[in-house]
Amino acid sequence: MGPESISRLFTLINDIKDLDPKIRVDLKQNIIEKHPDFKFYGDNVKEVVSRNLYVTADSYNKKQKQLKHILEVEIPENSKEIGAAISLGDLRENAEYKAAKEKQDILNNAAAKLKEEIEKAQLYDERNADTDSVSFGNKVLLVNLDTGVNEEYTILGPWESEPEKNIISYLSPFGAELLNHKENDELFFVINERNCRYRVEKISIAEI
Question: Which of helix, strand or coil describes residue 154?
């Protein structure tokens, strides 16, 4: 692909909610290997993604409960389904067995992915929050320099991202462009072929 197509693809994948951060990092490394001079939007994101995933305590607890439910409820139930399907006889023509085995693969992959994410998770500590520059846990008031309209965003992580509520991930293209900027900074960047022009009006601590 050419740079423009790569940029579109990376932006599309990078915007997926709950995407495993490792996929993002691996994709970026593969692009760099083939196109060493490629410019990523949001390169000001620190490459700690491969080691840490910043999360809130609430989302961390939810992910732990989700993993526990898969391991203690869904996988045992699936094992019973497999056993019941085996008891029906010829496995070559056994649709119930095939469906149960497919579900087993899905559950095992989901559990492995959750375990990996939880191991990388680093809890956000509000006691360390500051408003010197845009970072995880901030609420940012922007002035759209093209329209003059104020826009307010909360910067969290991929586990908490809800773009429809203006809660965006620090790993998303838009969130990445805001990181590390200070009040009164003017930002100019392009996302999905759209020119964006903003001024950082105010940085405050988000209520989480």
Answer: strand
The predicted structure's pLDDT at residue 154: 97
Structure confidence at residue 17 (pLDDT): 60
- Asked if 144 and 199 count as a contact pair (C-beta separation under 8 A), the reply is no
Looking at 90-137, list the stretches that DSSP marks H as alpha helix, in order from N- to C-terminal side.
95-120
User: Where a domain ends, among 81, 102, 122?
Assistant: 122
Q: How far from chain centre, in Å, is Cα 188? A: 23
Picking from 132, 152, 149, the residue whose alpha carbon sits closest to that of residue 141 is 152
Q: Which two tokens stand for residue 161?
A: 């991202």
Q: How many CA atoms lie within 13 A of 35 on its CB side?
A: 13
Question: What angle separates helix 95-120 from helix 57-69, to the nearest 10 degrees?
Answer: 150
Identity of the residue numbered 123: L
What are 123's two structure tokens?
């809890």
Q: Indicate whether 114 and 131 sit together in one domain.
A: no
Query: CA-to-CA distance for 58 and 178, rounded, in angstroms?
Result: 24
Q: Can you give the pTM of this predicted structure?
A: 0.68
CATH number of 89's domain: 1.10.287.180
* Position 11 in a domain: no
Regions in the chain scoring below 50 on pLDDT: 42-50
pLDDT in tens, 61-111: 999 999 999 999 999 999 999 998 888 776 677 788 888 899 999 999 999
Q: Domain containing 149: what range?
A: 127-205
The residues, ordered by sequence, that sit 6+ positions from 26 with a Cβ below 8 Å of its Cβ are: none
